[in-house]
Amino acid sequence: MTALLEIRDLKAEIAGKQILNGYDLTVKAGEVHAIMGPNGSGKSTLSYVLSGRPGYKITEGQALLAGADLSQMSVDERAAAGLFLAFQYPLEVPGVATMTFLRAALNAQRKKRGEEEMSSPDLIKRVKELAKILDMDMEMLRRPVNVGFSGGEKKRAETLQMMLLEPKLCILDETDSGLDIDALKVVSNGVNQLRSKDRGIVVITHYQRLLDYITPDVVHVQSAGRIVRTGGKELALELEETGYARYQSEAA
Amino acid sequence: MGNAPTTPARKLTDAEARLAEIFAMQQSAGAPQLAKLRTAAFDAFAKTGLPNRRDEAWKYTDLRALLRDVKPLAEPPEDSAKQSARSAAVLEGVTSRRVVFVGGYFVPELSDLADLEAGLSVVSLSEALAKGDAAAMTQIGNVGEVDDPAFALNTAFMGEGVVIRVGAGVCVDRPIQLVFVAGAQPATYFLRSLVVVEKGARATLIESFEGETTQEYHVNAATEIVLEEGASLERLKISREGAAAMHVSTFVASLAADAQLSDFGFNLGGAVLRNQSFININGQGAHAGLRGANILKGKEHADATLFLDHAAERSESKALFKSVLDDSSQAVFQGKILVRPGAQKTDARMMARTLLLSEGAQANCKPELEIFADDVQCAHGSTVGALDENLIFYLMARGIPQVEAQSLLTEAFVGEVIDAVANRSVRDALSALVSERLRTR
After folding, report:
1. What region holds the ABC transporter domain (chain A) (predicted)?
2. With the C-alpha atoms ordered B139, B143, B148, B151, is the resulting torsion angle positive or negative?
3. Whether B386 contacts chain A with CB within 8 A
4. pTM
5. In whole angstroms, what is the distance from residue B70 CA to residue B14 CA?
6. Domain harbouring A198, CATH code
7. What are the residue boundaries of the structural domains of chain B, listed by start?
């Protein structure tokens, strides 16, 4: 069976500076992977390279989503193909109503996949269901996208988008940053509802705390732009004890 | 705004010579109403001639260079032109009271002047003058002191327009829409309107200018508005002129105590568009909100020039202008705030924001402040930039294609000025116009 995400010896740079140095990672459908690592180890870079952010350039190697070469797709094509990046810092989009944004995103993806568009009443109904799971006030969703939202509200909104769009592969970039414990539980609950045999989830985090709520199948340690160790969920606990110092010196 | 006296030796441009000829013909055809006012205005114009780039107020719109010839004064429109005006400037979902002018002439059969609300009077300018409407004849040309050659020309040649009066305390819900449609022939239109909103009254006025033709034509329009104490007016001016049209428009308003003016000018087409506003805040606690939006492409040029005269205490003015410029289009924003001695607690703010969609587009912003009171707040600012790449990435990362992401963000940029329009159906119609215009760019 083809892996959902297959990264082979990936090298990537920003503005001429190499950040990923031969990255290998395979995520199969149904798996939850955690990528942990110290600040500056290139965790966010990985998420941006995969989603196609301008300025991030693959120089060697390959990243395949369900067998398709991501580097050959535009940012929106990657999203339609099933890649979702939950941003570490979701952006405020003044003047664009949240429902307009959700409708545009969902229907653009469906159109690209040759599926039928979702009607406005169905969309509103679905968004209401999701808002309830994520303990969000519908009033918030009548505002422009993320405008005036607290850090926690932005992460809930990000999770709502992910649940609505039902991607094949979810990448959560430090979703726990800026979250209090209640919001962390609510967001984790939303993510856990997305766990399924057809879907892969990659949780990028600095702290073990998030993994108390989203239990990973595999834990990787990233340092200096590549994975330096892989283990089970107990590896996260070990890191909490020992810290990253050991891996930083190893990589150096 | 003053002009240095020109040496008598300057040779008139062809256009200036032609204007003098037409004025002489107008005089000899039998003195029209307001003959004295017209003559004084033409003399004032003749002293300076057409304004050029050395006149500070016309620095970026050199009318002397732009107006190479003068199109003839319009002849009465043909029936076919009237017929096609039936559907002109219709705002989707807005039930307005339409007052229609085709090729500079009032067309009663296309206008809806039946069953006017009690206290509302709407009469064409020619009719008001023919009837000798004494109040109108004193107010025309006297709403504010305006020393400007384009406005002087309008006064000298004013042809048709409307006189509207909203009686004291009357609230007119249905928007009054003046529809000015260009005729099929090259022509010059001098349009002039007077709107008086009496004490405590309120109304919504829409002025729509449209030209389907690719013919060259010139519009010189002027609207004078008197807001008496506590009166409130929302005014919208939508200019969607033909591709070769030159449109110069002057807006003069006087605000008495606690009057509220909300003005929104929307430029959607025309080769050269100049909107100049002279806002005289004469009463305490009056508020003027002035907003504008330009969505320009090709070589279109739009100039918004504001003159805000605060002459009373505790008055406010808020100006916000937004431009979306594609191709090699140009937008000009000039704003001058004058705070007169004694106009304490004035709060005046101006902001111009420009979104450049192309490297060839150009924005010029020039604020001027003259403050003669010591307890006031005045601020001005301008920004010029491109769409935020990070936002485009965020939208695309959710599956929205690049072009659609750009349109959504551009609509959002313009949306800020449209959201402030109080009349909901008009606001929705304007949003639809923005989307339509951006889709066809």
Report:
1. 5-249
2. negative
3. no
4. 0.87
5. 8
6. 3.40.50.300
7. 77-387, 388-441
